[in-house]
């Protein structure tokens, strides 16, 4: 699952049953605008700001979303000498690279691993490995076929993980921006929700609500939108943006599967085979798509299972009571829990990802929807629904934006 921190849906936690604790636009993609007006905001409690220039109200580029795509875009912009602000409605950066704790148990409950195919992403991962942020996990996982047959792990292609959790990769990307932040050329603001977009001439105007009981208005020469495409479209629509018909059809064609992420703390080691994960065939009848043992993975001192539900099950039960969903998923992974789940499961928690996995992907790494000011949509729905796809999309969008801005 390539989950993304959505913010519109949350989680449910309970004890175990035992009761224990522009210069040139992209070809063919243009934008017409009416006057832009903002919609109502949503207050997010808390505030986190990084960067000496975080109080500045004017930037070369504002990037919406502090996941891998947004941070990679910011890296390219800083490299090109642009001043960039990254804003995210979540409490922390990372997006779908999400790690969570339940007591001493540690879970990766969003993206589970990543692979490397391109030289560009390989260079990025190599630097992260040298910095001690990422390492290889395995060369494949056990696979449960539609008929229930289990194939052993291993296909020779490395799977990578964060050393302490999947958030280590975005933390590494943040660290690469440190000198720019110190110099006031970059800043990251979390718990800051974009509530409105506007424009004045060639300037983009972004209104955010950072939980201060008052709206803040920021100006930028360009805007990069990395949220799931439906959320980016909602922002553009609320602003009165009129897209070219071809562009609108392309973006509105994007579809995502939701995903339940169930986290289970066990009182004993699991029965998940080495190296600590099982992938389930999409055609299998059961509700589970993925099962991982975070203790075997090397990030948790306690036995801790992450269960990802498949797209069909997640759609069908998305509004169901959390306890009902958890009971069904626990029953489905019963063969890999040593003993009765009623006593073996010490604690459990459920998270709902609304836009977890793009089921349709735009082959291009980004789509430019505006040129004056330049506005770009990018993320994991572009160039491939993987961590590498999100990174490649952000890097390409950042390079394009750096060139589209006036000197």
What do you see in this structure?
The chain has 407 residues and is an alpha+beta fold. It has two domains: 11-20 and 99-165 and 257-358, Alpha-Beta Complex (Polyamine Oxidase, Chain A, domain 2), CATH 3.90.660.10; 31-94 and 171-254 and 362-404, FAD/NAD(P)-binding domain (3-Layer(bba) Sandwich), CATH 3.50.50. Helix content is 24%, strand content 32%. It has eleven helices and 23 strands. It has helices at 68-79, 119-130, 168-176, 178-182, 229-238, 245-252, 294-297, 311-316, 322-332, 341-344, 387-404; strands at residues 11-15, 31-33, 48-50, 58-64, 84-87, 99-102, 105-108, 134-138, 142-144, 150-151, 159-162, 186-190, 193-200, 203-209, 216-225, 241-243, 256-266, 277-280, 288-293, 304-309, 345-358, 366-371, 374-378. The strands form five sheets. Strands 3, 4, 5, 12, 13, 14, 15, 22 and 23 form a nine-stranded mixed beta sheet that branches. Strand 18 (277-280) and strand 19 form a beta hairpin. The longest helix is centred in the last third of the chain and has 18 residues, at 387-404.
């Amino acid at each position: 699952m390539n989950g993304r921190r959505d913010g519109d849906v949350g989680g449910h936690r309970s004890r175990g049953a035992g009761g224990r604790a522009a210069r040139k636009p992209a070809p063919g993609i243009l934008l017409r605008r009416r006057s832009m007006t903002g919609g109502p905001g949503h207050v997010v409690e808390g505030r986190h700001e990084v960067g000496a220039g975080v109080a500045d109200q004017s930037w070369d580029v504002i990037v919406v979303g502090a996941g891998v795509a947004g941070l990679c875009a910011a890296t390219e912009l800083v490299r090109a000498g642009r001043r960039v602000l990254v804003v995210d409605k979540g409490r922390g950066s990372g997006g779908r690279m999400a790690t969570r704790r339940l007591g001493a148990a540690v879970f990766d409950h969003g993206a589970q691993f990543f692979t490397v195919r391109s030289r560009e992403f390989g260079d990025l991962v190599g630097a992260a490995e040298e910095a001690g942020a990422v390492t290889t996990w395995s060369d494949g996982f056990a696979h449960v076929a539609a008929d229930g047959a289990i194939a052993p792990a291993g296909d020779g292609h490395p799977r990578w993980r964060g050393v302490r959790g999947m958030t280590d990769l975005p933390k590494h990307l943040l660290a690469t921006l440190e000198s720019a932040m110190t110099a006031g050329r970059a800043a990251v603001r979390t718990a800051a929700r974009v509530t409105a977009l506007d424009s004045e001439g060639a300037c983009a105007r972004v209104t955010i609500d950072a939980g201060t009981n008052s709206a803040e208005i920021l100006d930028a020469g360009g805007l990069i939108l990395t949220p799931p495409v439906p959320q980016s479209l909602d922002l553009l629509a609320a602003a009165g943006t009129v897209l070219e018909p071809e562009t609108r059809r392309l973006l509105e064609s994007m579809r995502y599967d939701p995903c339940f992420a169930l986290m289970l703390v066990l009182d004993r080691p699991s029965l998940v085979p080495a190296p600590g994960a099982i992938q389930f065939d999409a055609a299998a009848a059961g509700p589970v798509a993925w099962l991982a043992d975070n203790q075997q993975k090397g990030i948790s001192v306690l036995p801790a299972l992450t269960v990802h539900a498949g797209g069909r099950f997640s759609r069908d039960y998305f509004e169901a009571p959390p306890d009902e969903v958890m009971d069904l998923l626990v029953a489905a992974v019963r063969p890999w829990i040593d003993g009765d789940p009623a006593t073996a499961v010490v604690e459990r928690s459920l998270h709902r990802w609304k836009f977890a996995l793009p089921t349709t992907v735009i082959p291009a790494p980004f789509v430019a929807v505006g040129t004056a000011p330049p506005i770009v949509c990018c993320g994991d729905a572009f160039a491939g629904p993987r961590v590498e796809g999100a990174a490649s999309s952000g890097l390409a969008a950042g390079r394009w934006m750096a060139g589209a801005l006036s000197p």
